[in-house]
What does this fold into?
Amino acid sequence: MINVLVVAAAAPGRPAVLAESMRRLAEAGAAVTLIVGDDLAYSRRYRTMPGTNGQKLWWRAMGDGKLRTAAARADVLVALDAVAVHTVWQLARRHRGADAVLGLTPALRRVEARAAGGMGLRVRRLLVRGPSVGYVREAVARRVKGYGRAAARHATGSAVQGTRLGRVAWSSALTSLPMPARARLPLARRVADGMARAGYADQAGTTLTAAVRRVPQPRRRARFLSTPALNELTAGRIPTYLHEAAAAELADADALLTGPAPGPAAAAVQRAAKLLFHRVLHYDSLTSPAAEDPAAFLAPWHRSATCRALAAPRGRTGRPAPVPKNRPARLLFLYRINDNFLKVLRDRYAARDDVEVRCVNVHADERLESAAIEPQQYAEHVLGGAPDYVAPVAEALRPHLDWADTVFVDWFSPAAGLLTLLDPGSTRVVVRLHSFEVFDIWPQLADLSRVDDLVFVSEHLRRYARSILPGLDEPGGPRTRVLPHPADLNGFARPKPPSARFALGLIGVSAIAKDPRWAIDVLRRLRAEDERYHLLLIGADLRGDTSAAARRYRRAYEEDLAELEPVGAVRRLGQTDDVPRALTEVGTVLSSSVRESFHWGLAEGAASHAVPVVRDWPFFPGAAAQLFPPEWVAADPAAAAARILAATATEEAWRKAGAEAAAHAMATWDQSVTASAYDRLFGVSGLPTN
It folds into this structure.
């Protein structure tokens, strides 16, 4: 009997033809086994593997026991279609006594030839059984290579790196022994991984960076460090070699800056920015490596020749002109998506006959939004390599810029960066920086020589910005001003029921920086004294989908709520358009954030006659006591709980403390007190005329 194995990638489209061929093979003395790819073991893994369809069929065939057994017995191996050819070829290399053909007609000829060959052909088949020499050579090489890799994994793994001798030996070898970069760098990565798994993450980073310093090529150093550093950040961890990775990318950018085109340099800057301004560093954690010494954190950026070229002043053709007397002042509000803090100013000037107002949302204009999401192309344009980038920006913004006497850009975001691409001429440009933008790339890219006034809502934020934006203190830079955000606090003072005395309120919990778990810690301490205390969470719920670090915080937060919500200790009120109404239930308003530029939710709560309690924001220690009465500020949850217990000891004491807070809020931050500063800034004086 002659054994025939037929392999097909898919079921044949003409069953009658297949049946006739099978019949003829059987008449010639063949026992036929047909295996179709659709019947092989399957998993999603094969669908995502790289390679051709033929290679993917072979990967599936290797794991099929029935196919392997049939191939070992086969005298003739048949590929029924082109996709199956690779599989049949691989089987023939392993079973060289079998004939391999494509198609059933050649298969029939081989069966007939074998039948005619008689005993001699069968003896020959026995003599040539087994795999081909080429296959054996490859298999042995793979096995030897596998043993080598296994030995290398063991030598560099956590068991060896967990010993002091292993760490010292490998660190010394990587930094002292001569070896090519193509060997040093992969080996350094394996050693560092082993140290990290053994619990020596700091030493892993030190070893890795020391080895990389032995590599002279900036591009090789940058690629080797930045990819694992970005992977670490994506996993929610801050690599110890973050600075080294960013500095390597910036050194590469500087080396590329003198090349024929600036595109590669701009790409390297963008890779460095993804490391230095990654959200895990500044937004999804309760602290930031830029907190204690921001200038040192951004030193590699400021030392870079490429980054200095990006921030170099391009100047303007004119200076801001006074508002003409023969027409209303023209005021343009420019922002991207978030106009939460513009409403009071927009309404104030829209109500005046002597002011014309326009509003432009960058996000709503496809030309501007396309440019806003491409900081790399922005950088390439500034460096002289993307001349077409600015054309749609000018088309969208130039008519508004030429119309306006003053442009007010809220948030130092892409909107501000795009505006500074254009020469403002005699139009005054005012930008207001809130807080989160200081941890973003756009203030580093924007041309500060085209900004006349940079407004901050607090002095501590201005100090911080000066430490990360050297251009603020250079000649030709913008004037910096501290102007409180004009808030409309009228209408917040509504009657509170006696039960509100025991209710804590937290306005805004969507960001990790709001740290609602600090407020929950305060709540636990209060409930240990009196279980009537409870917490109301006002606003959109905490986001936990932005990074692995954010997900970890969100899980701990949800565990807290799973314990406290069922007993009524915490209630999530969600997003509301009527904050004054929600605050009628709140007796104490908290600011639990790790950082704030001001925290207007606290001011609104104070205006509602709630007792304010402000955490001494860890990111800006001492800043809260400069903005608010010192007695409002608590150093830790214990101090916060003590202030609340004292202020709410009796209803009379609670209402007295709330009234004092409301009086301070109205006299200090209400628009009736603060908005006139913006009149002077915009060159508009007097009261509304209609």
